[in-house]
Amino acid sequence: MAATAKSSARIDEQIEIRGDGTNFTLAVKGSFDKPGGKGRLTVNLSSQGNAKTVPLDEVFTESTVYFRMPNEASGDTSWRSIPRDKAESHYLLRSPVNDPAHVLRQVERMRDVSKAGEENVNGAPTVHYRGKLNHEMLTLRMAEDRRAKFTEVRDKIGSDLPSFADVWVDRHGRIVRTRLDCSMGVAGGTATMNLTDLGKPVQTQAVPEGAEAVPPNTVGGPLTG
Questions:
Q1: What pTM was estimated for this model as a whole?
Q2: Contact 210, 77 (CB under 8 A)
Q3: What mean pLDDT is reported for the chain?
């Protein structure tokens, strides 16, 4: 984590959400200057049985995240903003406003870690580690009503939900891939994030001007986590 936090990276994440009667797939791509706390992402959401893809643009600073839907049906494509540390998630294995730093916090605290092997990732040798996410990490920064729902499920089955984390670390000690997985029959999800071009300069979009500040609890749905 310490080595990764000192580096910039390109982000390429694929997320699958299963349950609630609908399956969603999200593609999250962009770049982050981690030491500077800046980044930009483009998110595309598709749902099972629907060929239409819904996009979201995001710009991050250390303290704020800006977002807009460039193809909003109502024609409202203006930017909005919320404090980055107040954003919440509403689905398992989803980061608040797709923030990749959230994923790294979760895998940093995984438990029962063991070495799963040595593999090449993006053409470079890595060490693969596997661990578990406890209930606290699985529901980290989740909206209160959603956390209560998953806490009720945990209490009913008498144990933490079956949640696992995989991490691939390169020869410089930097994380180059993460995978989170939680499966409960037909419900659950998988999120795989690749970090490439570590340490290389990245382009981060200028902060949008005139963005409307909105209450964090009004921001939800599959696109924003």
A1: 0.92
A2: no
A3: 92
Percent of the chain with pLDDT over 70: 99
Residue 110 belongs to some domain of the structure: yes
Structural domain total, the chain: 1
Q: Is there a domain that residue 217 lies in?
A: no
Pull the structure tokens for residue 171: 């020869």
Q: Looking at residues 205-213, what average pLDDT do you find? A: 92
- Tell me the CATH number at 114: 2.50.20.20
**Residue 161 vs residues 93, 164, 184: alpha-carbon distances, Å:** 12, 9, 8
The answer to whether position 221 is within a domain reads no
Q: Residue 203 — pLDDT band, cuts 50, 70, 90? A: confident
DSSP 10-21: EEEEEEEEE-TT
State the alpha helices, DSSP H only, in the chain: 2-5, 100-108, 135-138, 144-157
